[in-house]
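Q: Can someone sanity-check these two? First one:
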Amino acid sequence: GDNYMEEGLTDGALGLNSACMGEFEESLDYLRQARETAEAHGLPNLMIWYRFWMCLNGLIRGNWEQAIEHSGAGIPLAVEMGDLWNQAWAEMGLGYALFFTGDRERGLELIRDGVRHNAETGALAVISYAHGQDAEILALDGQLKAANVAAAKTMEYVNQGDTYGAPYAHRARAVVFSGQSKPDWKRAIESLDAAFEIGNAAQARPDLAITHFRYAECLHKKGDLDAAREQLDQAKTLFRDMGMDWWTEQAEGLRGRIDSGAPFVWFAPYVDGPPSI
């Protein structure tokens, strides 16, 4: 059993790495192998990890339905097995996906539950990712002070060597600096540059594409429309190349708003129309 578990965990790690680099189909192939191993050898522990990886694949790609399906299935499974760590991650994954599909309140609530449960496990591995996602969601929700606190918390862990949440924290800070009543454009741009640096070093194309997208939003808010279009073109090219369809639509929606002279709004989603702002 242990050997099969190890084999499945290896496939999962490879699958997650592929997703982080924007190779989503390759990622799904690895994750399928992990699921087959779990099913063939009756490994419920591996199946719960499979749910976690499939949720992350969906979150990174912007395939919210996939993320919701697998995190939704993962929560009761984790509760039943007394696995608080996987429960925490499933709650955060579900919360993040629900926020991006429009259920902001429930999304924020679940992310908070997940961050709390994660802290209760005492397992500090990749906890910066949890706080980084929290910071990004709070910033996009307009809760700038809370976002700043979560970003600072993220960076505490990043400085201890857990760097997964750093791009989220930097993007959140960019939203905070450009969203204050007197925008600090210099610090906003510095934050985005820091996110680019990490994305480039890790060859994390989905992260880079989303940073280009946020950069375009900041520039739209600043009124620098040509530069915003330039960032958006780079984002859209990357999104399209990776098959990040939802994000490609968002980029097209934002481009439409910029070209038609529509007023700036933070993160719409732009395709389904902006929120009631």
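And here is the second, same format, sequence then tokens:
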Amino acid sequence: MNRSKLLYIGSICLLVLITVTATTYVCSLMIEKSAPVTNPITIDYDTEALKEAHRDAVGTIDSTPSLQYEKEKIAEICDKIINREVIPDSYYGFLVGDDKLIEDIKFHNKLTAEFCEYFTHKATGIIIAILELNNDDGSPMTSYAKDCANLSDENRELIARISKHCLYENANELLRSDAKLSLYIAAEGGSSAGLWPSLIHVEISEGGANEIVGLSDYFDLEKRLVTELVDIINAR
């Protein structure tokens, strides 16, 4: 066999060897890629553990307020009653199921607004009287809207303080111990002008001096509401 034939056969053998080697390598890659994982890494999601962690973070996993949040809101209602404030109806949702209590709070709102208006008007008359206030034209000032616009900010504050104190049963003591009001009260000494704090809850008429209608019931309502709300907070 001559040399050219040997070279030709050798080339054919080398080509075959390369082809077989390449094919084997490709097949091994395909097998490795398609072979199932014998020991896969899995993550075990513990649903209850996640829920518990969420409860710790936000208090609850549903849309209802947490118990602590409810207690805080009920405490805010209690504080507003103590401070003689009208309670927004958005707070009623924290007392669902206690319709009687909600109705009593609505009544508190009604009376608080009415008495606040009543005592603001009365306090305006008191400040005008004891300070002998006049309008710019020299005419005596009245407690009606057309003259109230002429009140100074300082006098408006005095009126607000008087009307606020009047919403409490011990208004006489609150008025006399108020640093901004006691100065004017003490200045009047024992004159009739200095007696108004003790008569603040009284209506003077031809028939005599009588307690303002409904005021005692209002004070009783405030005490009862605070007691009931505190009981609810302690029971939850």
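A (reply): Looked at the second one. The radius of gyration is 42 Å. Residues 23 and 160 are 97 Å apart (CA to CA).
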